[in-house]
Structure formats: structure tokens, C-alpha cells
Design brief:
By secondary structure, this protein is of the alpha+beta class. Helix content is about 20%, strand content about 45%. The chain has a single domain, classed as OB fold (Dihydrolipoamide Acetyltransferase, E2P). A five-stranded mixed β-barrel has the order 1-2-3-7-6.
Length: about 110
Amino acid sequence: MRRALIAVVSAVFTLCTAVSITFAQQKIEGTVVSTKLTACDMKPGTCEGTMVLEGKGAFAGEVTIKVPKGTQIKQGDGHLFLPGTKGRLVAITYVEDKGEKVAKSIEVKPAKP
């Protein structure tokens, strides 16, 4: 009986933790105004630095996003390096950490004709 109770409590705790992490992620879309590269191993996902977006909608104005090492920057089936995003429309999934917006994933959107 006790083991069953512990298993149920553990499952509920794990589920609640996963849900709270999922809700903590937010999305922003905008055009990259500038980038600053602080380190890069010249392989996809190894660059780190910051990017400044001209946000849209609720995020109108310039928004600075921290891009940690390990963040994939995807464009279709390929990848881009951080400096290659300048002037491009991007969609970023991020989390707030100590008052900073930290990118978890970056998708470069196709240019509109």
C-alpha cells in the first residue's frame, strides 16, 4: 500500500513539474536588428551571444535575447550561425532566467515577397 502511494505521489509531482516547465516557455517573433557573437566552434549549435529583435504585436520595440551554446538556429532543413540571422524574420522559443530572455530554439522564417 505504501509503495503504491509513493508511486502515485511521485507521478503527480513529475507531471506537475513537466507542466510548469512547459508553461514557462514563451514565443516571440520579429526581425533581427543586430547580433553579437561571444563564442563559436563553427558547428551548428555551438555559437553563443545575443541578438536584438524588432518585436511584433505584444512585443513591439527592441528586445534582447541571449543565445546560449547549444541553441539550434534552423532555417528549413538547414542551420544558420548567429550572425547569419541579421535582417531575417525569426520565431524564438525562450524562457525568462534572472530577468533575461534566453533562447531555447530559433527558427528563421521564409522571406515574404
